[in-house]
Amino acid sequence: MFAFSRFLIYFTEVARQGSLRKASEVLHVSASSIDRQILRVEEQLDMPLFERHPSGLCMTAAGEILFNAAKNWQRDFGRVCTQLEDLRGLRHGHVHIATIDAINRGFFSSILQRIREDYPGISFTLTTMSNIHIANALTAGDADFGIMLNPQSSRELLVKSFADLRLGIVVSRHHPLAALESIRFSHCEPWPFIVPAAPLMLADPLEALINSSGIRLKEVGRTNNIHMLRSLVRDDVGISLMCWLDIVDEYRRGELKFIPLIDTVLKPFTLSLCVAPQRQLSVAASMMLGQLELFFAMIESEEALAGKEKKHIG
């Protein structure tokens, strides 16, 4: 990048590769030229940036500090370039989104497609992470915003929008329970049950339901993968506990039925659109954020409509 010195370009590549020779091959610059630049700065700093071994180069503590600073400078400069493009009215930019695994479904892809149609100059990176890693990515500036489930209250996170998601029993469309409008957990005792296991967040409310109801589940299997859980229920291996968001695509296709649980021990999951409050978003990220806020409103309204349709059918 033109804004960075030759030394920083050489230094960061050597740090990544751990070798002058490999950095030379990537940069198409002689290894001796790269080494001279690094030695000159080491002399100015009066401390080594690399430990030199026969097997390669290893960063010192000073090198680690400089390498992390260089990554931050490059990331900040990328944001500046995006903002300058926004000022020119190009409406171009790249947006980094961190999400939980449950959100990466067909219905979310359709939202992103609509955003791309409205703003064709905007591209995005979509990364699936756990809640804690999303929070870390937001505070570190590695993501513009994140979609999290039940985020912990924190000064480092600001919730821009949220949707409450009911928990219920999910069955195949042919299951005898599929006609019910609502259900108590105790009514699940006779039926083969697929247990959602940790680290799925469904594991905690399931334990609370078992403890409060006192029933013994007819467990036929367990999985810590939400995709496998959906497949097992769809194939009638058993019924299970999920939130509405987990099956929205299958619900729309008529493959799975969602029966809301009415046990008072249950609290809904909260899907949240979060940002780091100290972060200044680019125009591209702000536009996409606005569209996703509309998406959150749609989630709650569609879930409510699904409940009404269920009641009408019943």
TrEMBL record:
<keyword id="KW-0805">Transcription regulation</keyword>
<dbReference type="InterPro" id="IPR036390">
    <property type="entry name" value="WH_DNA-bd_sf"/>
</dbReference>
<dbReference type="InterPro" id="IPR005119">
    <property type="entry name" value="LysR_subst-bd"/>
</dbReference>
<keyword id="KW-0804">Transcription</keyword>
<dbReference type="InterPro" id="IPR036388">
    <property type="entry name" value="WH-like_DNA-bd_sf"/>
</dbReference>
<dbReference type="Pfam" id="PF00126">
    <property type="entry name" value="HTH_1"/>
</dbReference>
<comment type="similarity">
    <text>Belongs to the LysR transcriptional regulatory family.</text>
</comment>
<dbReference type="InterPro" id="IPR050950">
    <property type="entry name" value="HTH-type_LysR_regulators"/>
</dbReference>
<dbReference type="Pfam" id="PF03466">
    <property type="entry name" value="LysR_substrate"/>
</dbReference>
<feature type="domain" description="HTH lysR-type">
    <location>
        <begin position="8"/>
        <end position="60"/>
    </location>
</feature>
<keyword id="KW-0238">DNA-binding</keyword>
<dbReference type="InterPro" id="IPR000847">
    <property type="entry name" value="LysR_HTH_N"/>
</dbReference>
<protein>
    <submittedName>
        <fullName>LysR family transcriptional regulator</fullName>
    </submittedName>
</protein>
